[in-house]
Structure formats: C-alpha cells, structure tokens
Tc3 transposase DNA binding domain-containing protein
Amino acid sequence: MPREIQLTESERKLILALHKKNISHREISRKINRSKTVVTNFLKYPLKYGSIKRTGKRKKVDERTKRLIIRTASNKTIYCANIVNDLCLKMSRWTINRVIKSSNILKKMKKQHSPALTTAHKDLRFSWAKDHMTWNNEWHKVVWSDEKKFNLDGPDGFSYYWHDLLKEEEIFSTRPLGGGSVIILASFAWGGKSSMLCRRTDELKSISRGVEKASH
C-alpha cells in the first residue's frame, strides 16, 4: 500500500490536544480522518516525527559476499548448491542463483563447439581427394573405421556455464578417451566389414599406450 501523506502542523497540534484529554487513538483518528496507525506513530515520537528514516529490510547478501559469489562462478560450470558448500554460506541455492542472475557480467551460456573447418583445412582435404582419384587396387589395402562414444557422466554437447562477459567465451571440446565412457567401434574394407566392438575408453587408452611403447 502507498504511504499516507504526513500530518500537517495543524493536525499534529490537534492530536496532541486531544491526547491530553485522554481521548483514545481510535477516536482521534476518526476526528481527523486519519488511520489509527498514523496517530499512534506520531504520539510515540512527536518531536522526531517526519525525521526518522526507514532502514528497510536487512539484505541477506552483503556486497562483499556478492563479489565472492560472482568471482567463484565466473566462467565455470558449477551448481549454485556447490557454491553454497564451497564458500560455507548460510543461504539457499536460490539466493545464490538470484545473485548471479542480477549480476551485469555473468550470463548462463552453452559452451561453443570447436571452430568449424577453416579454408586451409578444406583445401587440404580437396587436394587429398584429387590425389587419390586415380587409385584402383590401392583401395584394397585401406580400412575405414568409425566409432561412437557414450558418456556415463552426461553427453558432451550439453555443457552450460556462467559466462563472464568480460572474458572470452569457453570452447567445448569432446573427449576422445576418458571420463568413464563406453565406445563402440566398427570398420569396413574392400573385402567386407568387421563386427562391432564395444569397449570402455580406459581399456582403449591402455591398449593405445601399449602400442606406442611397442612402436618405440
């Protein structure tokens, strides 16, 4: 509700005069056509009426804590609940979320994928294709393979973070190995195709290390 207009000088004198006659606050409010709350507040501090400043509701988060929260979330993939635990704050994750959203420098964004092929990359691929256009029996010795990786800790493409507008955007890169993932591989050549192979990525990592050691 909007605040009432302050009492005029004549109204104040009338309230004091009626109050000296032991007239109730309710009856005084009826006589001057004001609310009982206005009359009561005036009679509490008649000499300070109109000069007392309202402090308002105390803020849950001070400026120092706000800066600490924003600095912790800056350019990071972090949950609000983790910020509460990491900073040992006595507030809910919803309060943390409101602080971050009210900031002018943080914005929730999806990480950008690695840059697309450049002109130089395209030229190299086109040159390779032209050089191998005349191949015939040479393709009998070539094996084509492909794989699909499934992450057990969430897909690669859904990585959101609190982007700091004062910093460069984060670029997302997929993980070829690691992260507790499962990978399915298959290949084909001139003579036919292979059966599909399903392995954990940590197994493939150990195999690749063994191959590197053997080659040296």
Observations:
- The chain is about 40% helix and 20% strand.
- The two ends are 82 Å apart (CA to CA).
